[in-house]
Amino acid sequence: MGTKNKALDHKNFIFAYFPGKSLMHKLNPISKIIFLILLTILTFTINSVIFLASISFLLIVLALTSGITLKNLVKKLKFIVFILIFSVVLNIFFNAIPSDQDIVLFYLFNLSFLPIRRLALYFALRALFIVLTLYTSAIIFTNTTSMKDFVYSLIRLKIPYTYCFSFMVGIRYIPSIEDEAKTIALAQRARGLGLEKVNSIRKAYNLIFERLVTTLVSILRKTYTTSISMESRCFGLHKKRTNLIKISFKAKDIIFILLSIGIFITIILYILQLLPLPPIPSLYYLFTNFINLMML
Asked: Considering its fold, how many domains does the chain have in total?
């Protein structure tokens, strides 16, 4: 029996669902959506980089306990992490709002034209952890949630099934597009396209253009087939419809939602300094203390 092609393994897809028995798999999709909404609000509310980094770390731990192996998680995150690191470097060296009053932490390689400014580094790291947090939470949700269960949960909330189905098709097409792009890349390589070295901008442009056009044509063909199939089945003719599967809330869903709301309120109160707890030290404070210790 031949070995499975790793490029077409669904577990390697970034936003593809695969079954599991973890707690996140067993939760109601609506309870996970509530968790994501609260997490998104917190992510844009928190100003502390250390706090955001801690949340990102906890989400990675949650992903590992949700049936996503460390190897697969690294594969899913490596592209966005590379982009974020590149973005951090650009934000540091090309500060959009330079100010003479801004504190210069140090000069890179002791060169006066390469200052590392405090605010530039802060906003760059904050943007990095915000994107990383949201991206990791999206991976956890899509990898542990069946889109069918999610749509059935939305229907139970009295949302029209036509909108629910449209949303499901849009979400389901994300891993399908990734699958189709990888299949097209393998087929083009089997025909000799892309085997030569890409040593010029024009060759890179032609290669990317061929991949994008082929993938777009395939997506449009699938979309047209789906629309024809829906019309032939008189989709949307009736305002209400019955479903074979019914997704209901269980005790663990209620506990998970209450726990999420409790943590959310606690963190908001902590941010507003309404709790008798010490503030989280800033990176600049830790940096200055470290420099002072080194000078002793």
From this structure: 2
The answer on 282 and 197 residing in a single domain is no
pTM: 0.73
Whether residue 198 is contained in a domain is answered as yes
Residue pair 193/206 in contact by the 8 Å Cβ criterion: no
Two tokens at 293? 């210790």
Secondary structure string (H, E, C) spanning 29-82? HHHHHHHHHHHHHHHHHCCCHHHHHHHHHHHHHHHHCCCCCHHHHHHHHHHHHH
3-state secondary structure at position 104:
strand
Return the higher-pLDDT residue of 19 and 53: 53
How far is Cα 47 from Cα 40, in angstroms, rounded to an integer? Answer: 13
| Per-residue pLDDT tens digits for 173-199 | 776 777 777 787 777 777 776 656 656
- Segments forming the whole domain that contains residue 202: 178-238
Buried b (16+ CB within 10 A) or exposed e, 71-104: ebbeebbeebeeebeeebeebbeebeeeeeeeee
Claim to verify: residue 131 and residue 232 sit in the same structural domain: no
